[in-house]
Design a protein that fits this description.
2 copies of one chain form a homodimer.
Chain A lengths: L1 E6 L13 E6 L2 E5 L5 H7 L7 E5 L5 H4 L2 H10 L6 E6 L2 H11 L8 E6 L6 E4 L3 E9 L3 E9 L5 E2 L1 H6 L7 H5 L4 E2 L5 E2 L1 H4 E2 L6 E5 L8 H5 L4 E5 L7 H7 L4 H10 L4 E5 L9 H8 L5 E3 L5 E3 L3
Parallel strand pairs in A: 3-4, 4-5, 5-6, 14-15, 15-16, 16-17
Antiparallel strand pairs in A: 1-2, 1-18, 2-3, 7-8, 8-9, 9-14, 10-13, 11-12
Helix pairs in contact in A: 10-11
Chain lengths: 303, 303
């Protein structure tokens, strides 16, 4: 599981900071989370093979999370995409995008599916053999969801030398990885635990932006490995956070602490602050470890 | 009159090339022409005082000319704009923008006016004491207009030493600049031509993008000082130009020649070509002088 931050600043795109967008890679699958203006340029800049993106998750319909989507969809068409694309986001997103494509008489020539969200309760919105994705209902000035990505357990890891020692034929290796006992020396069944070991633990990643400080999140986020939680403000401006329905870095840390997550990643910084290190300082008083998102930064969650 | 090219490439924004947008300054007034994705970042990068933009002219509703508009309008709100903003563009532009603002519950707190265009004949769409703007109906895959900006003649230039020599009191200087004869020595009327000279000739600028080669344009563009005409392709790909309703550099030059314009500026380059100098070469066989638009390039039309 690997996260590439394309943009992590609040409000408007500027010459050297970008609004929210992230690419999450899970076992070879690419998921795009939010898509502020300029996201397609960031995808090129950081050499993401973006034709491989199959699913895009939009948290809410504020410009800094969403205005780059129609351009990306159009660019996929220009690049000759043929594989299908799925968009998950608040109700209204389909009309906003399709109206613009229609005005430009620029329909996609690949299948484009919208999955509009309205529920205020967590729901599983995508699942395949490798991952399950559920919504994290948030509270902001408009209807907003975070997204929780949970890897599914992988195959057991074959200990090749043990398998050979027990006389297991190669043709049974895949079956052994699935957890079965398999024939060995003299066709005697070999107990699976003798020739395999537990798979890497499945990873989980939660994206929570934008939201007011929401203590109830801790229940759904319990034990998540990596939590990205917005921190638009520092504690000294908590009145602004409350007023605009954003969070402070300390509030993000409180969620991380109460949910016992593995690591907290901060982002969605207001550009009023000259140095983002202040966000880490604000959060680390309450919870550690804390990492700072930065445009272009890659987090390898398997290391 | 001064033109700042913010972006001049066709199709999609890339790391180092930007889709169409230009700022035209006429006697202190800023006009934005087209607004591809990333325009607001380009405005910041090239230090345009963009709060001063009062009127935005959109040629057509393809993404590379229009997808940056909603973000710019939103940013104006975040920056606390209070002066009114006027948008000129094809019918449908109002709904596309207002729907997105509504979805984000992000109405502007400054007056925003849309002037939707439908006519296929040239029409004057804005006029004040300094400039008149008319549409240039073009032919592309969707309804498209170019825009023709004509400065109005300025005041006559006062020759101060002659005015003093003729005993004209300072309080009459403004009246003299307006072309009147004014009292001089002994209250005798002084003929205006003795103390003033002709004003600088008013400049005109025509923006034509996107369009198929359209010979009828030469009538409306006759004698224009500066013509920006799209040149998506080189002559070797004129079949692609016809197919996609774009022009070649040579076709742009043919328009410039037939309309006897002062100078041709090329732009809207397909990114298939590694070196834009080829566009100048293609055009200069037919017409000179030719200039190449480049992202960030400034043309001072008064020099």
């Amino acid at each position: 599981m690997k996260l590439t931050v394309l943009g992590c600043y609040a409000a408007t795109p500027r010459a050297f900071t970008n609004p929210t967008s992230q690419v999450l890679e899970i076992k070879g699958q690419l998921f795009l989370i939010d898509c502020g203006e300029g996201t397609q340029v960031q995808l090129r800049r950081f050499k993401v093979k973006f034709s491989r993106i199959e699913r895009i998750f939009i948290s809410h319909l504020h410009g800094d999370h969403f205005y780059g989507l129609v351009g990306l969809i159009s660019t996929f068409r220009l690049l000759g995409r043929d594989r299908e694309l799925h968009i998950y986001g608040p109700k209204g997103i389909k009309e906003a995008i399709t109206m613009q494509l229609k005005l430009g008489d620029s329909w996609t020539n690949y299948p484009l599916y919208f999955h509009e969200l309205e529920s205020k309760k967590p729901q599983v919105i995508f699942e395949n053999s490798k991952v399950v994705v559920e919504t994290i209902p948030l509270e902001h000035r408009v209807y907003t969801n975070g997204y929780l990505f949970r890897e599914k357990p992988g195959d057991r890891k074959l200990i090749v030398e043990e398998a050979v020692k027990h006389g297991v034929d190669k043709s049974y290796f895949n079956k052994a990885k699935k957890g079965f006992d398999v024939p060995g020396e003299g066709d005697e069944l070999v107990a699976n635990h003798l020739i395999t070991e537990d798979p890497d633990p499945p990873r989980s990643y939660a994206f929570c932006s934008d939201t007011i400080y929401l203590p109830r999140l801790t229940e759904q986020l319990k034990g998540v490995d990596f939590l990205y939680h917005e921190s638009t403000f520092l504690s000294e401006h908590d009145h602004l956070a409350t007023k605009t329905k954003h969070s402070t870095a300390a509030q993000a840390a409180q969620i991380a602490k109460d949910a016992s997550v593995g690591k907290l990643i901060l982002g969605h910084y207001s550009t009023r602050y000259p140095d983002i290190q202040a966000f880490a300082d604000d959060a680390e008083r309450i919870f550690q470890p804390v990492e700072l998102a930065e445009d272009g930064k890659v987090f390898d969650f398997d290391k």
